[in-house]
Design goal:
Blueprint (H helix, E strand, L loop, with lengths): L1 H6 L2 H18 L7 H8 L3 H13 L3 E4 L4 E4 L1 H13 L2 H16 L2 E8 L2 E8 L14 E3 L4 H7 L4 H11 L12 H14 L2 E4 L6 E9 L5 E10 L8 H18 L5 H5 L5 H5 L8
Antiparallel strand pairs: 1-2, 3-4, 3-8, 4-5, 6-7, 7-8
């Protein structure tokens, strides 16, 4: 009986409501907010907000950042969001798109998310090739030296990216691995501008990959898709052509998740991924 009463306690419900109100308030603002600003927006006493913020910060749901000791959303929310997407069947939704791009490129296709600062492989479709990519569903890899990982990192908030770099470090796996924050951030800016990422033998010598972001209905990047193959087949000369295939497949999955891509709108309702991916890459 006591357990049931505790479960239904109006005070506990109120605490949860207020904690969620804090998260919603921080999410609604591009800039971090001070304790006073949060209290003012929610019309609650500063001591109440302070107690709740301490708990949320301990759970990594919010982060307090300098200068000014202001609060913003924590990386834990991003991790939880990605896990929720994985459980909502994104891998099953992605499979037809992965199959099309794998058939068109004649290379292995992957779907990945960012989980606890690493790339987690949710789905894989292999092409009928003798030499294949050594990967498996459930495998984890560093984000900074993979195409799928860099496609995800490119769309993190800078403070979340800084926290990930600090926690995970930029370990070298090959001579091509990017190992400094300055160079990585420069690479991520390029990825945002062109719309795709390249792993140029950065995690394993002889392996080259091309990845593009997948967005949900809000426009948030929740996953990434890639094609991967040996460098002698996935050559630099083919990068732009293969990137178009990956982008089209990622855009098609994003549309299925409810995202309205400017690229798709410009096509006046055409479905470029389904139209173009039926052709295989020439010369393979």
């Amino acid at each position: 009986m006591a357990a049931a009463q505790a479960k239904d306690s109006p005070y506990q419900v109120q605490v949860l409501d207020r904690a969620m109100a804090i998260l919603d308030t921080l999410a609604a603002h591009d800039e971090d907010l001070s304790l006073y600003e949060i209290a003012e927006r929610l019309s609650l006493h500063k001591s109440t907000i302070h107690r709740l913020l301490m708990v949320l910060e301990r759970q990594r749901l919010v982060e307090r950042r300098a200068p000014g000791n202001k609060y913003g959303l924590g990386l834990k929310l991003f991790e939880l969001g990605n896990k929720a997407c994985a459980r909502l069947g994104i891998a099953e939704r992605a499979r037809p798109h992965l199959e099309r791009v794998a058939a068109a490129a004649r290379e292995t296709a992957h779907l990945c998310i960012l989980d606890d600062g690493e790339v987690l492989y949710l789905a894989k479709v292999e092409a009928s090739r003798t030499v294949r990519v050594p990967s498996s569903v459930g495998q984890r890899n560093p984000a900074h030296c993979t195409a799928v990982g860099k496609a995800l990192l490119a769309h993190l908030a800078e403070r979340d990216l800084d926290a990930l770099i600090h926690d995970r470090r930029l370990e070298a796996h090959t001579p091509n691995t990017i190992t400094t924050p300055t160079l990585l951030k420069r690479e991520l800016r390029t990825i945002r501008e062109r719309g795709y990422a390249v792993d140029d033998e950065e995690i394993e010598e002889g392996l080259r990959c091309i990845g593009a972001p997948v967005r949900d209905h809000t426009g948030r990047v929740v996953a990434s898709m890639s094609i991967a193959g040996p460098a002698f087949r996935v050559t630099r000369a083919k990068t732009a052509m293969l990137a178009r295939l990956v982008i089209e497949a990622a855009d098609a999955l994003s549309a299925e998740l409810g995202y309205s891509s400017p690229r798709r709108n410009a096509k006046s309702g055409e479905r470029p991924a389904e139209r173009r991916l039926t052709a295989t890459v020439g010369g393979q």
